[in-house]
């Protein structure tokens, strides 16, 4: 689904330009979606009940100031069948979406429990920091919808008060994991299958864009592609490298990257990257041939 916001202050021509660009992206060969612009409650119900189809894409135009069409978004989300995959039996994993400093409580992190179960008083690890390290702490208390609870399980949103952790030491995009003997692995590089939704020219190695993986937002550089270059509508296998710090990733995580009018999405296929096994071996051969030719010419 797509939500277009701030329609109360957006000039009509700019709104129409945004809708035209969005429609072009959704109908492109890479996306192949049918945009359905929701105008009333009947459209909302019909679209929500047919959302099992992978082809349709509902588009809402809302204003958080006037409240226009917000009721349609709520109705759509309430009718929509649940598609989340949360494993309460798996190891505990919590993704930090926001951080707070509460008087007389201390540092508080909020987010969603992706898997497992956590209890107040449990020892956990939070990280990674700029060096890829995790910090040991304890869950002082748990709240759900501002109500104290003793336990929280997979699929639930919650806030955790942490012991002996300063707010400046935590950030959005960190994860909270159970304390184990072996430290969690973090990665600066990973390989993903991507779809280029929009780009003016061609994308090659060394290209940089803002990349989003769940709550993680960080600049990434493309270090390898399975072909010489990629354009709008292309699907490709691409190796990325985080510019600032390593992050906690898992195979299957969905990614979104953007830079100006450039937009692309994809899925993590593997974590880590081995330069000895390039995604496009032909590129290395071509470079070697060019080098040999230059030496012969010299």
* Gyration radius over CA: 23 Å
Helical/strand content category: alpha+beta
Q: Provide the β-strand percentage band.
A: 35-45%
Give the SSE order as H and E letters: EHEHEHEEEEEEEEEEEEEEEH
- Major sheet strand order: 4-5-11-8-7-12
Number of helices: 4
Query: Separation of termini?
Result: 58 Å
Biggest sheet character: 6 strands, antiparallel, barrel
Question: Mean pLDDT, as a whole number?
Answer: 91
Strand segment tally = 18
Could you name the ranges where pLDDT drops below 50 across 5 or more consecutive residues? 289-294
Please state the overall shape, judged from the principal axes of the Cα atoms.
Answer: globular
| Multimer state | single chain
Q: Which range best describes the helical content: under 10%, 10-25%, 25-40%, 40-55%, 55-70% or over 70%?
A: 10-25%
């Amino acid at each position: 689904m797509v939500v277009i916001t701030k329609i109360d202050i957006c000039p009509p021509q700019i709104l129409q330009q945004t809708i035209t660009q969005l429609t072009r992206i959704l109908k492109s060969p890479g996306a192949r979606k049918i945009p359905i612009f929701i105008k009333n409650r009947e459209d909302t119900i019909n679209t929500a009940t047919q959302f099992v189809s992978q082809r349709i894409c509902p588009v809402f135009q809302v204003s958080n100031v006037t409240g226009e069409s917000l009721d349609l978004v709520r109705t759509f989300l309430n009718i929509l069948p649940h598609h989340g995959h949360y494993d309460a039996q798996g190891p505990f994993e919590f993704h930090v979406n926001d951080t707070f400093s509460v008087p007389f409580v201390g540092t508080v992190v909020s987010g969603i429990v992706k898997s497992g179960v956590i209890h107040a008083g449990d020892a956990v690890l939070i990280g990674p920091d700029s060096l890829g390290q995790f910090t040991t702490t304890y869950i002082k208390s748990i709240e759900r919808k501002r109500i104290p609870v003793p336990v929280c399980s997979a699929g639930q949103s919650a806030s955790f008060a942490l012991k002996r952790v300063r707010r400046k030491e935590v950030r959005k995009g960190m994860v909270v994991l159970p304390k184990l003997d072996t430290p969690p692995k973090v990665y600066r590089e990973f390989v993903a299958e991507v779809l280029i939704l929009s780009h003016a020219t061609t994308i090659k190695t060394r290209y940089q864009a803002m990349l989003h993986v769940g709550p993680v937002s960080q600049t990434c550089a493309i270090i390898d592609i399975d072909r010489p270059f990629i354009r709008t509508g292309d699907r490709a296998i691409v190796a990325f490298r985080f510019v600032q710090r390593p992050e906690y990733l898992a195979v299957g995580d969905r990614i979104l990257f953007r830079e100006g009018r450039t937009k692309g999405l994809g899925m993590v296929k593997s974590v880590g990257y081995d330069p000895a096994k390039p995604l496009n071996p032909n590129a290395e051969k071509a470079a070697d041939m060019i080098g040999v030719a230059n030496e012969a010419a010299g």
